[in-house]
Amino acid sequence: MTESFISRPYRIGLPQWHHTDWYAPDHLSANSLAVYSQHFSSVEGNHSFYGLPSVSSVQQWAEQTPDGFEFCFKFPRSISHSGDLLACEALVDEFIARIAPLGPRIGIIWLQLSQQFSPQHLESLNLFLLRLPKQYCYAVEVRNLRLFDKSTFETELNQILIQHQVNRVIFDTRSLFANPAEDAETLDALRKKPRVPTHVIATADQPLVRFISPVNTELCYQSLKPWINKFVQWIDEGRKPSIFFHTPGNETAPELAQWFAQRLHEAKPEIPALTLWDRQPKQGSLL
């Protein structure tokens, strides 16, 4: 791993490390994580949302990634979407034990809650966070609009997160919904991504932003510029923020992340920029 990679004072990544349109032919899927982790400092661990990773997968992930790389795993949906956060203590223990061999490669572990998680469940969240192992860093993503009310319910949520030093996931889908398109991947994203307000708040020291772009990524550049200033502010405050970039289909997500990293480097030159691998050739040219 290069010194510039280690010295980057924030996490930057994508929702996956393999995509059929990302790599040149000699980068097979078997080593795509090794390639990805030489350029990005983190990845959303979406695999774990659908079930426990196998013991062999965890071992391979540790072997294929350099020091300083981090997996930001989601709690499995059997925990986050079970309907009762207080009845899944054994599942939490099993999940933590499964990923524990990754050691320092475990980044933020985050709880993605459904729209059905409403203000009446906040005390359950409080007790759930209280029981979590203290050696890890956590984040919570909510989708119920009543928890974005800028008053009683949202204040209570933020106070719980601050009390436990847990980060609130900031989901920025504004640019996606402001620039709809008719292609199949955009329509799928518009159906699946939550249209929730973007409330910029750091409830702990590692703010986590998920940015969803329209299929034409140039349309989101203006929306990204305030995030550059916010990341400079957070870094100057001694925080370590994270940002993960999604695009419909994710084909152009690496270039969008590179654009952001370059602008952050220009704003704060001591922060290294981001390089990319050679892209998969298409129609006789290299993207």
Give me the secondary-structure category.
alpha/beta
Q: Major sheet: size, sense and barrel closure?
A: 8 strands, parallel
Report the count of strand segments.
10
Tally the helices.
Answer: 11
N-to-C SSE string, H for helix and E for strand:
HEHEHEHHEHEHEHHEHEHEE
Percent of residues in helices comes to 25-40%
Lateral arrangement of strands in the main beta sheet: 3-2-1-8-7-6-5-4
The stretches of 5 or more residues where confidence is low (pLDDT under 50) are 282-287
| Percent in strands | 5-15%
The span between the termini is 25 Å
Shape: globular
Based on CA atoms alone, the radius of gyration comes out at 19 Å
Mean pLDDT: 91
Describe, in plain words, how this protein is organized in 3D.
There is one protein chain. The chain is α/β, with parallel strands linked by helices. It contains eleven helices and ten strands. The strands form two sheets. An eight-stranded parallel β-sheet has the order 3-2-1-8-7-6-5-4. The chain has a two-stranded antiparallel sheet with strand order 9-10. Helix 10 crosses helix 11. The C terminus is likely disordered.
Summarize the structure.
With 287 residues, this protein is of the alpha/beta class. Helices cover 36% and strands 15% of the residues. An 8-stranded parallel sheet has the order 3-2-1-8-7-6-5-4. Strands 9-10 form a two-stranded antiparallel ribbon.
